[in-house]
């Protein structure tokens, strides 16, 4: 690695570190007076606008990031770099926002030997927000996973991904219209009553309660009627072969 390449890498790392520390003067010292920044969100801007925006955010926004230098090419007193950046922007009292992407930067060597940033194209975009909980899935204990799969397929239109021996799987994930249910075979020696009781085992939200009720009723004559509930939902219930009470609801 040449001395010039090492010096350019030092400028990049110093920039990232000074930004995290809120040292604006240090950041400004790493760019030329005629620097131009290009981003996807606004027209090109220079050093003065960069400084003004940074001062406005001081104390209200915290920046943390990492930079991976992918390429450096030097020709005389001019060099360009290609980097991948990952930045976390945290407003005071707010949730962090992660951004990542690539930059293309041009550096110019000064008469005193320093390399300063003179052009920068920043293509960072927000990363998808990741929440702690995505969804919840009911897990129904059954005597026979195979028999339950058949019922949920034929009556409710679910498809199944079974796991375990092909003749008698011990687990299955049921899918329909983006919804999931799980079936788990009970361990040997554990008694499962024929009827779970009057309480519901799963609540399934639907868009058209009448159409679902008609389709289920064509397969299971003893399916319950649709009831209008005081809390605004229209519901009906059906019991699967294992005694699990499934309540379907269309709610406003």
Explain how this protein is built.
The structure is a single chain. With 252 residues, this protein is of the alpha+beta class. The chain has two domains: 3-126, Nuclear Transport Factor 2, Chain: A (Roll); 139-251, 2,3-Dihydroxybiphenyl 1,2-Dioxygenase, domain 1 (Roll). It is built from five helices and 14 strands. The chain has helices at 3-21, 24-28, 47-57, 145-156, 209-217; strands at residues 31-39, 61-75, 78-91, 97-109, 115-122, 125-126, 139-142, 159-163, 171-176, 179-185, 202-205, 227-228, 233-239, 245-251. Strands 1, 2, 3, 4, 5 and 6 form a six-stranded mixed beta sheet that branches. A four-stranded mixed beta sheet has the order 7-10-9-8, covered by helices on one side. A hairpin with a 2-residue loop joins β9 (171-176) and β10. The termini are far apart. The model is unreliable at 193-197 (pLDDT under 50).
Which features would summarize this protein structure in a list?
252 residues, Nuclear Transport Factor 2, Chain: A, six-stranded mixed sheet, four-stranded mixed sheet, 5 helices, 22% helix, elongated
Q: From the coordinates shown, what is the CATH architecture of the largest domain?
A: Roll
Tell me the count of domains: 2
Stretches where pLDDT is under 50 for at least 5 consecutive residues are 193-197
CATH class of the largest domain: Alpha Beta
Into which percentage range does the β-strand content fall?
A: 35-45%
Write down the secondary-structure element order: HHEHEEEEEEHEEEEHEEE
The radius of gyration computed from the alpha-carbon positions, rounded to a whole number of angstroms, is: 31 Å
Helix content: 10-25%
End-to-end Cα distance, whole Å, is 66 Å
According to CATH, what is the topology of the largest domain? Nuclear Transport Factor 2, Chain: A
Total number of helices: 5
Shape: elongated
Give a count of the beta strands, DSSP E runs of length 2 or more.
14
For the largest beta-sheet, the strand count, sense and barrel status come to:
6 strands, mixed
